[in-house]
């Protein structure tokens, strides 16, 4: 019996019928291998290469015992599939090992999409049924001490390499389970990489370097999938090696290169609904850990108030990310999240805290061509009446147009305004040359600073 055919390699084609006999064979061999090598598979001390060799040897023996009439290619594919299920993450393994894939989206057992070069494309599924997807989700979740079941049908987790994982199962997912994996580079991106991608331009690097070394409080803002965490990682590379850094995340993603880093990760409640440790709990505790800087992977609720308090009580140089559509929206979101902390604070008091705590907002946008670009670098200047005033220091030049490949030709350009925080940097002995803020021969004609003042 020949192996089933999966999705055609052509994007957009429908999945063809599977061979139930081959699926049954695959399941039997899988179960036999689990029974035979169970303790070995859970042994974290065993060398991965030795483990894979033992699994492959057992797989060949099990397949020989089945006496099936499979071609060489069919045998090879079957062995690879079962090996990936036992050792790795099943059909996801090939995409996890593909460096060109940045995101994996499983929309149930029959639909799998990946993102390459900023574009989403459909790929062969490889999953047998919904139970197969569920087994892979359970395998991922268990490795980081989390759980997913009908009582808790959603989970945020991570892979061993730090890649972000979100899973949703029945009864919330209709036609699921659903699984989304945002991969992170095995070798974290550096400044030169972001310049090569067009995310940043070399002219703003001295400013960002000085802002981090000069202990400005920075918010990286942007929509989902715009590269906020990647940019935060790059910004963290400017932190001096002699500083003590505490990182706080819901699921560990940051990849700081410094030695003196204390990563903290939130914890979900146990099966009895107890023992949950939130970002806010960790943030409060971090203040007792003598940090030079606090880096919060993402503020999304009441922890925004604690973050502002930390920034206003001697923990300068803190960095966080926030989902928003613009620098002005970033302030609105922080204001809303601060009110979620449960304290009845006057709006003006919240805004005064924000104006005092925040120095710089770096906004990242995912453009229509699939690229991720920093489109605004904005200074938080202070209060004018009831409003927080913002001033764009660099803005993306959308007027440059689009090339023949549909890619935006613009880049960040200076507005010609020297920010007020340069005085604060000077107090740290960091002097920025005026050339950093010089307007080019062809000035930006579409500044958004007027919008930010509304």
3D architecture notes:
Helix 1 packs across helix 3. The N terminus and C terminus are likely disordered. 33% of the residues lie in helices and 20% in strands. By secondary structure, it is an alpha/beta fold. The chain has three domains: 87 residues, no CATH class; 98 residues, Beta-Lactamase, CATH 3.30.450.90; 262 residues, P-loop containing nucleotide triphosphate hydrolases (Rossmann fold), CATH 3.40.50.300. It has 14 helices and 15 strands.
How would you describe the oligomerization state of the chains in this entry? single chain
How many individual helices? 14
Structural class determined from secondary elements:
alpha/beta
Helix fraction bin = 25-40%
Low-confidence stretches: 1-17, 443-454
Which CATH architecture of the largest domain is right? 3-Layer(aba) Sandwich
What's the CATH first level of the largest domain? Alpha Beta
Total domain count: 3
Shape type: elongated
Number of strands: 15
CATH fold naming of the largest domain: Rossmann fold
- The H/E string reads HHHHEEEHEEEHHEHEEHEHEHHEEEEHH
Our estimate of the beta-strand percent is 15-25%
Task: Report the C-alpha radius of gyration, rounded.
Answer: 25 Å
Mean pLDDT: 84
Arrangement of strands in the largest sheet: 9-8-10-11-7-12-13-14-15
CATH homologous superfamily designation of the largest domain: P-loop containing nucleotide triphosphate hydrolases
């Amino acid at each position: 019996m020949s192996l089933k055919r999966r999705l055609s390699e052509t994007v957009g084609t429908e999945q063809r019928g599977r061979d139930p006999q081959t699926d049954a064979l695959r399941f039997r061999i899988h179960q036999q291998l689990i029974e035979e090598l169970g303790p070995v598979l859970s042994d974290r001390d065993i060398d991965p290469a030795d483990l894979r060799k033992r699994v492959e040897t057992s797989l060949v023996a099990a397949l020989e015992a089945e006496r099936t009439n499979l071609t060489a290619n069919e045998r090879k594919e079957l062995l690879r599939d079962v090996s990936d299920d036992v050792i790795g993450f099943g059909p996801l393994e090939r995409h996890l090992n593909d460096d060109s894939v940045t995101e994996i989206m499983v929309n149930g057992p029959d639909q799998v999409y990946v993102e390459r070069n900023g574009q989403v494309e459909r790929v062969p599924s490889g999953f047998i049924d919904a139970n197969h997807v569920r087994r892979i989700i359970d395998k991922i979740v268990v490795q980081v001490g989390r759980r997913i079941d009908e009582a808790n049908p959603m989970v945020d987790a991570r892979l061993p390499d730090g890649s972000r994982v979100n899973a949703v199962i029945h009864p919330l997912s209709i036609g699921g389970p659903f699984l989304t994996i945002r991969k992170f580079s095995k070798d974290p991106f550096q400044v030169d990489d972001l310049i090569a991608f067009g995310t940043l331009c070399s002219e703003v690097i001295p400013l960002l370097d000085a802002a981090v070394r000069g202990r400005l409080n920075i918010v990286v803002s942007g929509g989902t999938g715009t590269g906020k965490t990647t940019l935060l990682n790059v910004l963290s590379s400017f932190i001096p090696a002699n500083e003590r850094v505490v990182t706080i995340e819901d699921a560990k993603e940051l990849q700081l290169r410094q030695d003196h880093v204390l990563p903290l990760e939130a914890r979900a409640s146990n099966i009895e609904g107890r023992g949950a440790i939130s970002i806010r709990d960790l943030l409060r505790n971090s203040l007792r850990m003598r940090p030079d800087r606090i880096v919060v992977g993402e503020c999304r609720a009441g922890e925004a108030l604690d973050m502002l308090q930390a920034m206003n009580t001697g923990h300068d140089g803190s960095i966080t990310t926030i989902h928003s559509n613009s620098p002005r929206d970033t302030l609105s979101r922080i204001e809303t999240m601060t009110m979620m902390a449960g304290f009845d604070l006057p709006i003006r008091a919240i805004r005064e805290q924000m104006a005092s705590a925040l120095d710089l907002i770096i906004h990242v946008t995912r453009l229509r061509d699939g690229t991720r670009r920093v489109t605004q670098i904005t200074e938080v200047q202070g209060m004018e009446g009831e409003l927080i005033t913002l001033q764009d220091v660099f803005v993306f030049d959308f007027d440059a147009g689009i090339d023949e490949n549909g890619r935006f030709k613009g880049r960040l350009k200076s507005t010609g305004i020297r920010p007020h925080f340069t005085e604060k940097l000077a107090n740290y002995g960091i002097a920025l040359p005026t050339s950093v803020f010089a307007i080019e021969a062809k000035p930006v004609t579409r500044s958004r600073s007027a919008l930010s003042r509304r």
